[in-house]
Structures are given as structure tokens and as C-alpha cells.
Amino acid sequence: MFERLLQFSDELVGLVDLVRESTVTITGMDVALRGDMIGSGWVYSHQGHIVTNHHVVDGMARNLNVQFAGRRAIPARVIGTDPETDLAVLMCADGAPFPAPLEMRLLPARLGELCFAVGSPLRFRESVSMGVVSGLSRQIPTDYGDIEESIQTDAAINPGNSGGPLVDCQGKVIGVNVAKLGSADNIGFAIAAEIVAAVVPELINYGNVVRGHLGISISEAWRDDGSEQQVISVLRTSETSPFQVGDVIRSVNKLPVRRRYDVQRALRRDVVGSTLQVTVVRAGSDVNLIVPVTARPPRTP
To answer: Among all residues, which ones are annotated catalytic?
Structure first.
């Protein structure tokens, strides 16, 4: 009578065991050396890279350690942070043993699918909570701007969960837990794996993220043909820019633009100092623009 429930329960236990092994608790002394700070993270690579949140390690002055399930804490160091996406990468001490990395799922999260948050909320190590993906394409406000395309979940996320993985039913990472809405129940957020996949290699290779700028501000707007479809429209532009206010961005270097993040994703480090072909819809017609890309200064709080 209960076979299916027992099978489901056993499969969940196996899933949690797999993810728990590769999830870490991160601790360190604060800048004032008054006490410990704590957060979570997870193994990203076979070289010992650990992904977590920027706000977890920001302000950790010394004694930075990572601890795997059932193991002694080992030293780690920060090798890169990106405040704008609230991501950071640590490196385990040379020669320290660590479990296999978790696999990321780059297919988008699906509204309503089961998900699991793993980490150390409120210093309760090796905790897991279950929920569903309860919202997509959310914007998480931070001191450095909004984090685009984030995942909303009703899996319990509390202080200390930050930086830990949000995984699907196969144990693949679909997001990095980052925050909860303090004024509500069961509304938590995770940085989508799509963002993690773009930012983390930059942090590993360079220690920071360089972003390009087209000299415009953009926003989502409804199409003016009466259809129930949103487009990305130019909201503000500089006097010397080839864009005009109201231009609808159709593509960047022939890649279609459907979200604000599609434009941001195109403005990566390797295009800074070059030009991009941007196709816009202006007065009902397609116009091809050749736009110089300049380096955008990092945002500050």
C-alpha cells in the first residue's frame, strides 16, 4: 500500500546524500574580529573551486574555512567575487581532499518543479528543505542593482543558506540560494544556473567580471501592435549614441533579444573595445546599428 511512498522517500534520501557530500559550510572571522560569520557553498570543479555568495565572504577578514559533511574544516581563500550578481568563488587549500563537484543544469527551471535547498541555515549544518519552483524571471534587488532572471522558491531559505545549492530531482544545481523575503512566508530566491555559468568562469580566470556598455538604458515594454508580447525598448540614450529612445532591440550580433539579460549577456569581457551589430525596430522597420562597446564601471552600493 505504501510502496510508492517508500520508494519516493528512499530516492529523496539518496538525492540528499549525494548533494550533501558536495555542499560546504563556510566560516570566517568578521572584519572587527568579534565573531564568526557563516554561510554555505558547493563544489564547482575538480580543482577544488567552491561557489558561494559575495555577501557570505564579504567582510570575512581571516580564518576562512570550508567544512564538508562529516569532515574537518579546511582552509580556503577567495579567488574572485562579483557583487552585482552576488557570486563568489573560493579555492580549497592545496592538497585538501574534497568530494566530486555538483553538476549544473543549464536548462531553465520549470514553474512548479520540485527543488531542494541544501546548506547550513542558522548554523544548523547539513540541512535540507524541499519545495517547488514558485516563480521565474524574478529580479532580486541588491545594493549593486537587480540580479536578473532569478528563481523564486517556497523551499525554506534562512540566514546561513546563502551560497548553498538549489537542486532539482536529479541533484543538478538549478540555482544558488541567496535570500528570502523577510516580510513574507515561504518566498525565497536563488540565482539561476544560467547566471552562475556565465559569471563563475570569469571569477576563476580573472577574479572579477568586466561588463560592456552601449550607452543606453533599457526596459521591458509591451509591443505597440496590440499583441500580448513584451519587448526590450531603449529608455534613455546619450547624445552621441546611434540609438533612439523607443527603439526596440531585436537582436545583438544576430542573437535574438527577448529579455534584458540577453543584452547583458552579450556585453561580456571579450567584446569591450570592439563593436556589435544591433538590430532595432524603429518606426516599424528594422535598422542595423554598429555600436561601440565601452567598459562599464563597476556599480557601487
So the answer is: 55, 86, 162
